[in-house]
Specification:
This protein is 80% helix and 0% strand. The N terminus is likely disordered. It has 176 residues and is mainly alpha-helical.
Length: 176
């Protein structure tokens, strides 16, 4: 049974709102940089399906950036990005995968999928936490926006898993 929880107003919890805004700035940076990195991942891919998945996610990521800007606007705040150390590290790792795997191989595709799923899981955790904080702060419209993005991130993760399991991993296992 769900408890009736009274939303916390920003007057009641300025520290919680500050955490929310700081985390929003973090994911804003992350999404903006991911939008620049995904076309490079698409270009590095071997299979047309993986390339298409990265291209689709690039378009979705650009929408995610716009949604974050909408959240800032709803909160009466300027959209400002704060460097996201986690995403920076994940994107550096994806760059090293391109350098460490042979072009045109399914092993590279496996590696790219793994790197992309690490990014997706970071985003899922971030949006889930942000949505929960928005709910606690009584920001229902903001929570709904964040939930939409969270759902899309989960769908992308599932598509990557399906791609890996449908043939990419098998093809990679057969490469010399």
């Amino acid at each position: 049974m769900k408890k009736n929880v009274k939303p916390v107003s920003e007057k009641d919890s300025p520290a919680l709102e500050e955490l929310f805004i700081d985390s929003l700035k973090d994911i804003y940076w992350a999404e903006k940089h991911l939008a620049k990195a995904l076309p490079k991942l698409a270009k590095a891919g071997t299979s047309e399906e993986l390339k298409a998945a990265f291209e689709q996610h690039t378009a979705e990521t650009e929408v995610h950036v716009q949604r974050i800007e909408q959240v800032f606007e709803l909160m009466g705040k300027k959209a400002v990005a704060k460097k996201c150390e986690a995403m920076e590290g994940l994107l550096k790792e994806s760059d090293s995968i391109k350098d460490d795997t042979e072009k045109g191989t399914f092993v590279r595709d496996c590696s790219l999928i793994l790197a992309a799923q690490k990014v997706e899981h970071y985003e899922i955790a971030s949006y889930g936490g942000l949505r929960t904080l928005a709910q606690k702060l009584g920001l229902d419209e903001v929570a709904a926006i964040l939930q939409t993005t969270l759902d899309e991130e989960g769908t992308t993760d599932k598509k990557l898993t399906q791609l890996a399991e449908s043939y990419v991993n098998e093809e990679a296992a057969q490469e010399a």
